[in-house]
Design a protein that fits this description.
The protein is α/β, with parallel strands linked by helices and 300 residues long. The protein has twelve helices and seven strands. The chain is globular, with a radius of gyration of 20 Å.
């Protein structure tokens, strides 16, 4: 089994309009599929930087003098590129969400399929795991996470059930959590509801929404004029942020005007969003919810 089967590979790299001597960033390296495709299109003077906070991804590093792999969260993209002497780039690619490797490694705790310790950390050096969220968060905070990140309407009832269960015994594994919540998991919808619950916990553990916002805002400053942003998202929370950044250059509020009443939007979308073909979804089930948005940087 491959580490990770890249989704929308051709479409996302085509969207970068790669210049042979350009500088590019793959902020979600994973198994290196997207990075390898970028390197194929770069000339000898081109440069590719990649980010991945998961130490497992380091095993996939590419032996190429044009390539640098940085073992950090992409929310620190600007700082680490500056450390390498880079202030501007020509294109940035992000393939958000969890890699196939992380889902398929039972002990990582990302998948509902396996009985594993509650973990879900993308960076295994982080202190907060799913265990802490489930066993120590107060009821209101837990309910808010399930509602905001899992889009679960009965989040309060689910949180209450978790709180009551953990008084007797700590909830240590994914199957123990399933057992605690079994009354909320009718057979016809069990997989869908569990996926929403796991998604909410995972997003909280890894601070995914805040990290994505940090990264997207920094991409505005990092990209050269005409530089391309190519982002693949897998759920509405991520996609909404990407869409708003492209449309408004911000995540909330109305467009701002300057003294003369002019509106400056840092990005211009490049075509409509792209979804995988039926063939790709059949070959790679992870692609079923993917959505690719591409934009280029406007003049300052």
């Amino acid at each position: 089994m491959s580490y990770h089967n890249p989704v929308l590979l051709k479409e996302s790299i085509d969207g970068l309009d790669i210049k042979p001597d350009g500088i590019y960033v793959d902020v979600t390296f994973g198994g290196g599929g997207h990075s390898k495709e970028i390197l194929k299109r770069l000339g000898k003077n081109g440069k590719l930087f990649a980010f991945d906070q998961d130490t497992d991804a380091l095993k996939n590093t590419i032996d190429d003098e044009r390539f640098v792999l940085i073992n950090e969260n992409f929310r620190y993209i600007k700082s680490f590129l500056r450390f390498h002497g880079v202030k501007k780039v020509d294109g940035i690619l992000a393939d958000l969400g969890v890699s196939s490797h992380q889902f398929n490694e039972a002990e990582r705790g990302f998948s509902t399929r396996f009985n594993a310790k509650l973990d879900m950390r993308m960076n295994q050096n982080d202190k907060t795991s799913a265990y802490e969220v489930i066993n120590y968060y107060e009821e209101k905070k837990l309910a808010d996470i399930l509602f905001q990140y899992g889009e679960l309407r009965n989040s309060r009832a689910i949180a209450k059930q978790i709180i009551e269960a953990r008084i007797e015994n700590k909830i240590e594994t994914s199957f123990e959590l399933k057992e605690v919540l079994k009354r909320f998991l009718p057979k016809a919808k069990e997989h869908k509801i569990l996926a929403q619950i796991f998604q909410a916990i995972r997003i909280e553990v890894n601070e995914e929404i805040d990290a994505l916002k940090d990264f997207l805002l920094q991409s505005i400053d990092l990209l050269n004029e005409g530089g391309k942003l190519s982002v693949i998202s897998y759920h509405s929370l991520e996609d909404r942020l990407v869409k708003r950044l492209i449309q408004k250059g911000k995540f909330e509020g109305e467009l701002e005007k300057d003294f003369y009443g002019n509106i400056h939007i840092p990005f211009k979308k490049d075509g409509k969003f792209i979804i995988p073909t039926k063939k790709e979804i059949k070959e790679n089930n992870r692609a079923r919810s993917a959505k690719l948005r591409i934009a280029f940087k406007n003049k300052e």
